[in-house]
Automatic annotation (TrEMBL):
Protein name as catalogued: Excinuclease ABC subunit C
Assigned keywords, A-Z: Cytoplasm, DNA damage, DNA excision, DNA repair, Excision nuclease
Domain GIY-YIG per the UniProt entry, residue ranges: 14-91
Source organism phylogeny: Bacteria, Bacillati, Bacillota, Clostridia, Eubacteriales
Domain of life: Bacteria
Gene Ontology CC annotation, any one: excinuclease repair complex
PROSITE patterns to which the protein is assigned, alphabetical: GIY_YIG (PS50164)
Molecular function GO labels: nuclease activity
Length: 173
């Protein structure tokens, strides 16, 4: 570990964010996210690791970090940074798996749903998320913050349960 890395490690904050590991040419070789940047980034330079991580650490000559307001923001930023920089050690988002997206439907009364297909249907798509758990966590938060429709048209014209909980505008009522 070089002196520049030692100095930067001492300055890492106790906050969530993303970190970008760079090689000797300044090329970003890995992007990660952390609930606590100080703990996560320092962990690369202490203790034993698997072969892949040891190879990564042996190439790190510098790093940068970006502080975020929340873990969700860090997750979204991480995905975008990986897509933008295509780091050689980030293989999870490069393979041909279908990753989950959040979709705001293009209906008269929109719904927020999780999908693995991005269609040309004039809906709004957000993602991809690295796994369905992260998509569900984000959806749960957004469902609490924004009372988008969760119900189907009612034959009885009665409001849905989510309407009574203040989580659905229930346009059919």
């Amino acid at each position: 570990m070089n002196e520049r890395i030692k100095n930067k490690l001492a300055l890492l904050p106790d906050q969530p964010g993303c970190y970008l590991m760079k090689d000797k040419n300044g090329t970003i070789i890995y992007v990660g996210k952390a609930k606590i940047l100080k703990n996560r980034v320092r962990s690369y330079f202490t203790g034993s690791h698997n072969t892949k991580t040891e190879r990564l650490v042996s190439e790190i000559e510098d790093f940068e970090y970006i502080v975020t307001e929340s873990n969700i923001e860090a997750l979204l930023l991480e995905i975008n940074l990986i897509k933008k920089n295509d780091p050689k050690y980030n293989i999870m988002l490069k393979d041909d798996k279908t990753y989950p997206f959040l979709k705001i439907t293009n209906e008269k009364y929109p719904r927020l749903v999780i999908t693995r297909k991005v269609l040309k249907d004039k809906a709004l798509y957000f993602g991809p998320y690295p796994d369905v758990g992260a998509a569900n966590e984000t959806k749960k938060i957004l469902d609490r913050l924004f009372p988008l429709r969760k119900c189907k048209p009612s034959q009885t014209k009665e409001p849905c349960l989510y309407y009574h909980l203040g989580q659905c505008l229930c346009p059919y009522y």
